[in-house]
Amino acid sequence: xxxxxxxxxxxxxxxxxxxxxxxxxxxxxxxxxxxxxxxxxxxxxxxxxxxxxxxxxxxxxxxxxxxxxxxxxxxxxxxxxxxxxxxxxxxxxxxxxxxxxxxxxxxxxxxxxxxxxxxxxxxxxxxxxxxxxxxxxxxxxxxxxxxxxxxxxxxxxxxxxxxxxxxxxxxxxxxxxxxxxxxxxxxxxxxxxxxxxxxxxxxxxxxxxxxxxxxxxxxxxxxxxxxxxxxxxxxxxxxxxxxxxxxxxxxxxxxxxxxxxxx
Length: 263
Description:
By secondary structure, the chain is an alpha/beta fold. The chain has helices spanning 29-32, 50-73, 146-161, 231-260; strands at 11-15, 24-28, 87-89, 109-111, 127-130, 133-135, 140-142, 167-169, 179-191, 195-205, 212-223. Helix 3 crosses helix 4.
């Protein structure tokens, strides 16, 4: 007879404490090997499961990325903030219905370039927010240089108030005019409550500037709408101040006319 031996897997005998030596339980050595212990859940210092913290901490980063997409690529055009609309204004002359109270005649007048303080050379309307503080709104702009606008309106107003169609601007020959008008603005602005102020010095000269026929100072005020809520109304108030200055100049020209003669 051929004997074969079977390899037995190594086993350990475990005797039952209750059965004495009669009962033996065999258990594989593999069962005695240390079993891998699953990692314990990682807990954050705030008591939340770490995976929960990581998931929700990435949410602000996602929002930031979305905001960058909107602002840089314009992928959501309807979410773009609306841009404030710029508005451009000019000063207005007197209406043509206002006529002069002097006898018809030809009085040729030259209106020189208006001089402005430096703070009025900004393209925005000057709003006085305090005694020494000026604001320039980015959406309320002049459509022309302010010195040119005042000169233009004064000339148009004088053509109605004198009346005469012989008004020259800036350049003329001395024999073409009977008087020359020069205006220097010291203050021309409106505050946040709609109070507008015009302070100016003016001179009326003989042709060629050889003689001062008349000179004076204008300190004019008007109340109108606030430039914050009604910028067009504030511009109209400033136009009214230029009209008041024009009336003062027209009156002075009438008074100098007999002495200077007419052309």
